[in-house]
Design brief:
The chain is of the alpha/beta class. The protein has ten helices and eleven strands. It has two domains: 191 residues, 2-enoyl-CoA Hydratase, Chain A, domain 1, CATH 3.90.226; 47 residues, Lyase 2-enoyl-coa Hydratase, Chain  A, domain 2 (Orthogonal Bundle), CATH 1.10.12. Helix 1 links the parallel strand 2 and strand 3. Helix 4 packs antiparallel against helix 5 and helix 8 runs antiparallel to helix 9. The chain is globular and about 60 Å long.
Length: 260
């Protein structure tokens, strides 16, 4: 089944349990204006609502992932690319409850990098670049850049990128664990989709709960970690899918998940 694009600037397709959201504004390097941010948010809402989507990929058309905010559109209208409920670029304050993978070709700069940082995993073409050049323009990377990057890289390295505004290569990003996979140019979306298919093959309730716990537990006190986790993991352990997973393993067959 295929999703319906919410505007010409964003397309959305679903197959094999994986949704692919494509930023489709190559003429402006996939920069985000307010309608595009709202369209991204609407697709993320659809991803969360659809039972046939277990994981998703976000990518850009053409040779650039995203240049971030559409400054020309902002100058013309005064409207910031913010979507109610999901924040800047329709994703930076709240992405999906399901795993989301950024497939990066070319440059992911400023808001483009912040979109990638909002995702759970990043697959990047070998010649792609990541950077936060906001300080070069008298700004701060306020859509998650200064908040998320120090949590994903060693502090000193994150500070260097944030304070100099200079970009980082995909290979360097991968060496420090920021990028999951570096792939040949032009293949990022295919590699990201393969990774998403692997995720989608697993029990959906277990996957969503595992993602939720990874995100939520970052701020939990160490002495409360297991107590806070227990209600979530107990619910998964008592689910129909947990029973099905054990039976399928013993019977040497593929599990038939119901998400319950």
């Amino acid at each position: 089944m295929t999703g319906v694009a919410t505007c010409a600037a964003v397309t959305f397709e679903v197959s094999d349990g994986v949704g692919v959201l494509t930023l489709n504004r190559p003429e402006v390097r996939n920069a985000i204006d307010k309608p595009t941010a709202e369209a991204i948010a609407a697709v993320l809402d659809e991803i969360d609502a659809r039972d046939d989507v277990m994981a998703a990929v976000i990518t850009g058309s053409g040779s650039v992932f995203s240049a971030g905010m559409d400054l020309k559109a902002f100058t013309a209208t005064g409207e910031k690319p913010i979507a109610e409920g999901r924040g800047a670029f329709g994703i930076c304050e709240r992405q999906t409850a399901k795993p989301l993978i950024a497939a990066v070709e070319g440059k992911a700069l400023g808001g483009g990098f912040e979109i990638a940082l909002a995702c759970d995993l990043i697959v990047a073409a070998k010649d792609s670049l990541f950077g936060l050049p906001e300080v070069k323009r008298g700004l701060v990377a306020a859509a998650g850049g200064v908040l998320r990057l120090p949590r994903r890289l060693p502090r000193n390295l994150a500070m260097e990128l944030i304070l100099t505004g200079e970009p980082m290569s995909a290979r360097t990003a991968a060496a420090y664990g920021l990028v999951n996979r570096v792939v040949p140019t032009g293949t990022a979306v295919y590699a990201a989709r393969e990774l998403a298919v692997q995720i989608a093959a697993n029990a959906p309730l277990a996957v969503r709960t595992a993602k939720l716990l990874v995100d939520a537990s970052a701020d939990w006190p160490t002495n409360e970690l297991f107590d806070r986790q227990r209600p979530f993991t107990d619910a998964v352990r008592s689910s129909a899918d947990a029973t099905e997973g054990a039976r399928a393993f013993l019977e040497k067959r593929t599990p038939q998940w119901t998400g319950s």
